[in-house]
Amino acid sequence: MPLLLSATLSQPLFFPSSTSHHIIINKPQPPLIRPSHSLNNLVPFPFSSPTPTLYAPSLRILFAPKSASINGVSIHNNPEPSSSTQLNATAAAQFLHTLRKWIQFLPSILPGGKWWDLSDDDVQVQVLAQPVTVWRALHKMWHLVSRDRWVIFAAFTALIFAAVSEISIPHFMTASIFSAQKADVTVFHRNVRLLVLMCAISGICSGIRGCCFGIANMMLVKRMRETLYSSLLLQDISFFDTETVGDLTSRLGADCQQVSRVIGNDINLILRNFLQGTGSLIYLLTLSWPLGLSTLLICSILAAVMLRYGKYQKKSARLVQEVTASANEVAQETLSLIRTVRVYGTEEEEVGRYKSWLEKLADISLRQSAAYGFWNFSFNTLYHSTQVIAVLFGGISILAGHITAEKLTKFILYSEWLIFSTWWVGDNISNLMQSVGASEKVFHLMDLASSSQFITRGVKLQSLTGQIEFLNVSFHYPSRPTVSVVQLVNFVVHPSEVVAIVGLSGSGKSTLVNLLLRLYEPTNGQILIDGIPLKNLDVEWWREKIGYVGQEPKLFRMDISSNIRYGCTREVKQEDVEWAAKQAYAHDFISALPNGYETLVDDDLLSGGQKQRIAIARAILRDPKILILDEATSALDAESEHNVKGVLRSVRSDSRSRRSVIVIAHRLSTIQAADRIVVMDGGHVVENGSHRELLLKDGLYARLTRKQADAVA
Ligand SMILES: Nc1ncnc2c1ncn2[C@@H]1O[C@H](COP(=O)(O)OP(=O)(O)OP(=O)(O)O)[C@@H](O)[C@H]1O
User: Which stretches make up the ABC transmembrane type-1 domain (predicted)?
Assistant: First the structure.
């Protein structure tokens, strides 16, 4: 009875053909189809399957569904023994299937075939940026570096001198050799002197050129990152509802780096080779115009191929940047949520998610490399054609006495120079196209208009009492225009009043605070501050008057003292910082830390409640006219309640600093002492009054209070 070996393999296995057993490799996937994460609609590469399949009919290697393992290779008795004729027939069918796939695939890899298709839909990458032309990109780059145009001018001057001196070297070299052959000593010495001079000029100017272009490049990347970063920071908050951190940091990092090659490398080499190519062509035409024209024809074909290749590279580069950004996005998200990933044991899924983007990247890179191969093939063929033409026609011309050997030598040297210059220009234009492709999203983001809040300056009030009035305020988030989050909200916070906003989760409490902070503008109605519409106030001045503590505050990676001072525009001494920390009940735990207020804040160092107390100290230090506390939910509840109650107590006891307080509370016991309680339900204000009044009303607030009391009991 034949034995059946099966194993799940990622690499092919080979077995000696002398075996008398049926060897079956368990491979559940059909052999030539890429997994679902390959580029959609792209013609797959038969050998690019991540789990290559061995197909060897002569070895009787087949597919089988069942396995039992010995050292990773399973051995079974074949449950349904089949005759060797049947096996051979199956193997032959498989072979024919593979062959058919290859025959179908091969035409698609010819130039213009479907395999090369890199359409945006295929990759399913959201390409937001409008295509940027090379000229537009260069114009923008010039705008960024034009402040230091002296470097660019120095670079171009050095480039011209270096190019001219380099291009004259073959002339003086040939002239020296042939004058020596003719024993013309004077001409020989003159040519050698000029050759040395040209070599020296070329060396010095090349050095200056490289250095100046390098400086210009460094400045370009620096300014690009500066401009992009400040453009991002000045966007409306709604912009960050749709863009992810991973994507944006990828633009700042990888994309700007890719663009960094433009001036130092691409433009530098394109100009240098263009100048040298033009010089060579003129020289060739003066030597022999028929030979010169035939070289020019070959170079034109090369230029046409190069143009096509450049366009392809530009598109693929843009896709590479998009896919890289998406991969970064996944990595950034997973790493920032690593605790959740660990607890739920989803490491493999996350690796899979990241890998699927890497696969897409590999698919595009595969096409890029294949295109590069085609380009090199074209260049080599055309390059050797010029040599053949030069030798053939040049030889015939020498035999006919139309041209001297010296002229032919010069011709061969300069035609090589011309074709190499064309190649270099082509290569660097394609690099330039790639850089421009990569820069599309960067320029798109740089061009975004800043939030209108930073452009128009509003009114600054002489004094602020802290009266806040919501008048028929309705709002929906820009990212969800069909969902109205708050509707026709009306309530007033009087100066120095403590108002609590309560309600079920998702009822719109934090949204009201977002509107008050002017992170978003109401879609209807308005908010009045001391009777003035909030949208007419100067946003910077307004935010200076507010102290805000969010639900789960994040701290900066700096020492505790700097974290408390963060954003405080007035001069503050260390005593002020400690006073604010005492008010926020943070002083004791800060003093107990090894370096006290100098301790560097680390994410793991402080508990959620401690971070919240530091954030409260930060808010208090600003001595705000309006204090907003968004009490933490969930795990922080007990500690948060204690913190918030402490703040409310100190606000009450400190008669010097009168401030209005808005507190969003989940634990209703926190806010019983509030002057007034506003109850939210489904985006509406449903009740408004003191704790006692609302209990008497026996509405939603009373129900919520009873529920929480029952839960505690
Ligand atoms: N940036 C946003 N983009 C789109 N929708 C949002 C955004 N922020 C909040 N929402 C939605 O608005 C609604 C109200 O959210 P909000 O945070 O104001 O509720 P909340 O009462 O403060 O909830 P919680 O008590 O859980 O903090 C929710 O349905 C939420 O999904």
Answer: 153-434
* Cβ–Cβ under 8 Å, residues 495 and 531: no
**How far does the centroid of ligand 1 lie from the alpha carbon of residue 510, in Å?**
7
Residue 622: the pLDDT is 84
Question: Which class for 418: exposed (0-12), middle (13-18), buried (19 or more C-beta within 10 A)?
Answer: buried
Kindly state whether residue 697 falls inside one of the protein's structural domains. yes
Together in a domain, 221 and 284: yes
Q: Does residue 125 fall inside a structural domain? A: no
State the Cα torsion 25-27-32-33 to the nearest 10°: 180
Among residues 422, 446, 470, the one where a domain terminates is 446
Amino acid, res. 538: D
Token pair in block for residue 499 = 């108002």
- Cβ(441)–Cβ(321) below 8 Å: yes
In this structure, the answer to whether residues 437 and 466 fall within a common structural domain is no
Verify whether ligand 1 is closer than 6 Å to residue 634 (CB atom). Answer: no
Boundary (domain end) residue, out of 446, 469, 501 = 446
Write the DSSP symbol of residue 26.
-
Ligand 1 atom closest to Cα of residue 551? 27
* One domain for residues 396 and 508: no
Ligand 1 centroid, distance to 519 Cα (angstroms)? 13
What is the DSSP secondary-structure string of 534-584? GGGB-HHHHHHTEEEE-SS----SSBHHHHHHTT--S---HHHHHHHHHHT
The answer to whether the predicted template modeling score (pTM) of the entire model surpasses 0.90 is no
The two three-digit tokens of residue 638, written as one number: 């007990």
Rounded distance, CA 58 to CA 492, Å? 87
Amino acid sitting at position 65: P
DSSP, residue by residue, 482-534: T--SEEEEEEEE-TT-EEEEEESTTSSHHHHHHHHTTSS--SEEEEEETTEEG
- Residue 368 sits in the same domain as residue 335: yes
Q: Is the CB of 241 under 6 A from ligand 1?
A: yes
- CATH number for position 467: 3.40.50.300
Structurally, the chain folds into a number of domains equal to 3
Same domain, 488 and 436: no
Residue 619 inside a domain? The answer is no
**Residue 199: which CATH number?**
1.20.1560.10
Same domain for 511 and 438? no
Distance 368 CA to ligand 1 centre (A): 45
* Whether residue 480 has its Cβ less than 6 Å from ligand 1: yes
198 and 274 part of one domain: yes
Q: Calculate the CA 546 to chain-centre distance.
A: 34
Q: Is the pLDDT of residue 40 over 80?
A: no
Residues 136-175: tens digit of each pLDDT: 888 888 888 888 888 889 998 998 999 889 888 888 888 8
Instruction: State the distance from the centre of ligand 1 to the C-alpha of 608, rounded, in angstroms.
Output: 21
Which of the listed residues 238, 473, 509, 684 should we mutate to test ligand 1's pocket, taking the one with most ligand atoms within 8 A of CB? 509
- 388 is a domain residue: yes
CA of 606 to the centre of ligand 1 (A): 27
Q: Roughly how many angstroms between the first and final C-alpha of the chain, as a whole number?
A: 74
Domain of residue 428 covers 134-446
Binned at pLDDT 50, 70 and 90, residue 236 comes out as confident
- E strand or H helix that includes residue 440: helix 405-446
Q: Is the distance from the beta carbon of residue 476 to the nearest atom of ligand 1 less than 6 Å?
A: no
Q: What is the DSSP string of 245-268?
A: HHHHHHIIIIIHHHHTHIIIIIIH
Mutate to test the pocket of ligand 1, among 485, 685, 700 (most ligand atoms within 8 A of CB): 485
Confidence (pLDDT) at 678? 92
Q: Are residues 147 and 72 in the same domain?
A: no
